[in-house]
Design a protein that fits this description.
Shape: globular
CATH class of the largest domain: Alpha Beta
Helix content: 10-25%
Structural class: alpha+beta
Distance between the termini: 21 Å
Largest sheet: 10 strands, mixed
Strand order of the largest sheet: 1-2-3-4-5-6-7-8-10-9
């Protein structure tokens, strides 16, 4: 058990890991909710999620439709991307057990020793409490330990100040820029972090 402080809130972390699955359980206090909320982070490699529970499939589908439809990818895109070799998904959910309790996810893949983080997303009502940081930490740990990645690369919009702050605090360095990368014409900043052993 590891205890860390994030913005005055205690996070209780319990790590377990396997070759393809890793799980992190932690509790936190949300600023607007004095009760403790428990979250479980799980990772899945390629399409193994779909051999998981019906609840997980339904929850991911509902999460994508509710939160990501206009921002990132619909559920069908997740299904397709999870079939690409090296692609994996880490998702966070409360321990209560309903689809409403899906809280965030990170999606990426490893190729040639480099882990590419496609994105991290947390529900807007749960931001600022360490969940995004924990998703990023678990993404890095899974990339390094299970998939032998030596570094993580990602793209981020210059207008996404909160994500840039998270990456910079997590030792990511800006290494480049892609002009007019996003559909709306905004550039993408390229960040990289070399993973320790």
């Amino acid at each position: 058990m590891v205890f860390i402080a994030a913005k005055g809130h205690s996070l209780s972390l319990l790590f377990t890991s396997e070759r393809i699955q890793s799980t992190v359980a932690f509790a936190l206090r949300h600023p607007d909710n004095p009760g403790r909320q428990k979250f479980v982070l799980k990772s899945t490699m390629n399409s193994s999620l779909y051999s998981g529970t019906d609840y997980e499939k339904k929850a991911l589908n509902e999460f994508c439709e509710r939160w990501l439809k206009d921002t990132f990818w619909p559920f069908k895109e997740f299904e397709l991307s999870l079939k690409i070799p090296g692609t994996f998904l880490i998702f966070a959910e409360t321990s209560v057990g309903s689809a409403e309790d899906f809280t965030g996810l990170a999606l990426g893949r490893v190729m040639g020793g480099v882990s590419e983080l496609f994105f991290i997303y947390t529900r807007p009502d749960l931001r600022g409490n360490g969940l995004g940081r924990q998703l990023l930490l678990d993404f890095e740990a899974h990339s390094r330990a299970s998939l032998q990645a030596q570094s993580v690369m990602l793209e981020v919009r210059p207008s996404n100040d909160s994500a840039i702050r998270l990456y910079e605090k997590s030792a990511y360095k800006k290494v480049g820029q892609r002009k007019r990368y996003y559909k709306d014409g905004e550039d993408a900043l390229i960040f990289e972090k070399v993973l320790g052993s």
